[in-house]
């Protein structure tokens, strides 16, 4: 409170974006032949989205006080009254990188359709084949609305994708050679780190005026700052079918365990959300929460009791869970440098069987291991994700056309915003196990904490 008893207005810390120097051209959407925008259609550069919407209103700690006085904000996404590009000069490149994710094709389709139909770009949109390496190793593909008409109905990425192959100089050389002045990178955390470096190199070269935009994609939902990445909900939906199958299998067996491994290299969001939605899960194991197998209070002890009580149990394990315990032959990684894990599901199944033999020899146990890994991400986006992909793509187009660069389009507290790419590239999004969501999982599964300083296996 101020002396006069008024609560002071917090000051905004706007996460500003670099802009391209360019002509201020009236937005062509204002003269669209079919669509007549209302005065509120255009977004002012002063419109912002606040990062934090939860505040502790009680008398302050130093940190709380600072939070009340300074609020982080991002530019609100949307069409600007003036743009930096004459549509006739736009040469846009679209690239998809990293693992598959439902909705990637929809994003590409909407980038093409939005640039063409909203802004009137003709013959200036190109697809880069097979991820970042495609800039220098493949021919680019001209794209127009007719070419991409049905893409949103298909899983995967029609442009192709890859890991690795990030050769910065060759990529920016290719951008220069093709005369691209807008680059849209659709990908996960690795892709955003790459796009941030492309943006940095473009600026370093000085002579290039290229808007670099990112649209975050990852089924794992491990990209930070944004509310969630597209395709995540579709993947969770598909994951539930695997859990349902595991449940049918374990209920039909005498002392059955349905063991389901789900994607999630460093973040357990898919496992967590699928567990929450399914309600059939007895134990959910994620990378963010340690557990141990043997001894009192360990996982096997818990499962034994659960099987005794109910006759069966479902275990969901994220691929990156328990990696402290899983034996490793060598520090392995994929082409992008991401950690490559041994199969935690197969390991758990073998360990459980061995333990059962030792501790409960003669008692029957059936373990059905389900690994739907690629099935949950190779599907087309559901309705919600399709809509989300469309709006993310359009937000990215409006930002690039306005001359913003080095930004990611994403939602923050449900509102579309432009976030500095560097910030997204560095941010992680692990499951917060102190949060209510994890507490809900625990209340559904009634699994214990597994925190006793137990043996290491
Ligand atoms: N630090 C980085 N700098 C530049 N490029 C990167 C970096 N990390 C990853 N990339 C590149 O981004 C692309 C996608 O990364 P990857 O980790 O495989 O998938 P995702 O983007 O889905 O996380 C790959 O071509 C990879 O080489
Ligand atoms: O076998 P691939 O194609 O490398 O993909 C496996 C990985 O993809 C992921 O879904 C993550 O992918 P991204 O980082 O590309 O979004 C992980 O869960 C999994 O480890
Ligand atoms: Mg990734």
TrEMBL record:
Superkingdom of the organism of origin: Eukaryota
InterPro entries (alphabetical): ATP_PFK, PFKA, Phosphofructokinase_dom, PKF_sf, PyroP-dep_PFK_TP0108
Catalytic activity, as annotated: beta-D-fructose 6-phosphate + ATP = beta-D-fructose 1,6-bisphosphate + ADP + H(+)
Keywords: Allosteric enzyme, ATP-binding, Glycolysis, Kinase, Magnesium, Metal-binding, Nucleotide-binding, Transferase
SUPFAM superfamilies, A to Z: Phosphofructokinase
Molecular function (Gene Ontology), one example: 6-phosphofructokinase activity
One Pfam family here: PFK
GO terms for biological process, alphabetical: fructose 6-phosphate metabolic process
Phosphofructokinase domain boundaries: 91-398
Cofactor(s) of this protein: Mg(2+)
GO CC aspect terms: cytoplasm
Gene3D superfamilies per record: 3.40.50.450
PANTHER family according to UniProt: ATP-DEPENDENT 6-PHOSPHOFRUCTOKINASE 1
Functional description taken from the UniProt entry: Catalyzes the phosphorylation of D-fructose 6-phosphate to fructose 1,6-bisphosphate by ATP, the first committing step of glycolysis.
Name of the protein described by the UniProt record: Phosphofructokinase domain-containing protein
